[in-house]
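Hi V.,

You were right to ask for the full record rather than a summary. Here it is.
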Amino acid sequence: MGLFDRFRPAKIEAQAAPQLMTDSFNYYLPGLMTAVGRDEAMSVPSVARCRNLIAGTIASFPLELYKKSTGEKLGKPLWLEQPSIHQPLSTTLAWTVDSLLFYGVAYWRVTETYFDDGRPARFEWVAPGRVSYRTDANTNYIIQYTIDGTDVPMSGLGSLVTFSALDEGVLQRGARTLRSAIDLETAMRVASATPMPSGVIKNTGADLSPEEVQSILASWKSARERRSTAYLTSTLDYLPTAFSPRDMMFVDAVQSTATQVARMMNVPAYYISADMNNSMTYANVQDERRQFVSLSLAPYVHAIQDRLSMDDITARGNIVKFNVEDAFLAVNALERLAVIEKMLALGLITVEQAMEMENLSPNGNDTDEPNVL
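Predicted structure:
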């Protein structure tokens, strides 16, 4: 291969129409009473905590470009440092993971492309609710995407890069659990906001028609919600049935619901204080972090880095990966230095390499990375 061959535009195939994995890429579940929207789900503290743990942690991982055959770290293209010109990388990643978590799909729109090979140079995150699509006759493949009702190209500038999660998203598979959690929050809010305890209205006079009963109950409920005084006739009597939050099992219900939410979102229950019997020690923090990455974060990490490593975005032979080790799993200084000392003793690395591993400037030389073509 000659020198000028390296600069010839690479042939990029048009983005293949993605296979329709599920029909759940919507905000709500049609036809189900348990349908839950994202805003409702995030109003539950345990859901918000799980979301922020997953999205916030992954958003702190830097993206790196590697040569697939050797594992050599390459210079970063501009979009790996900041995909969108409107927001930092961490914000784009956090909302990408949010979309994957709740809806099972995330979208980036291509806003800039490289002149030489046509690959994307900049992106912007697009909310799933703005995106719809049309399928082929057999509803197996998506043939056209639209944003806010307008068709967008299926490849090149203005097209959508689709990230697919490994399931249909928690708004669908966890709709009933989320609805239970929301209803529990509502019941607790009503109990704390209502100045008068719950009770029953007893009628000591003539029986009333169902319409009259419903009218009395509606008026009584309306008066209680407005915290105003209600009037009862001489034949009606209000019998309060006051229960404490513990009597109403609110405390146990909150704990049980939080545990169910943690299971549904694949987060260890003690991370959201739902497992009161667990005690963490410094000795097992690293092991717990590795388990959290392997079991909770891995599906979203791989969904993003594998999609960004595909040929329509990254040149063949290179891959994009999150640098999880340095960002989240780094051991403490004493353990790290002990490993480096053993590697030096065995002749596996040089002093200069050891200093580089600790981000130290070898012999006072400039540590700036050389330019990569």
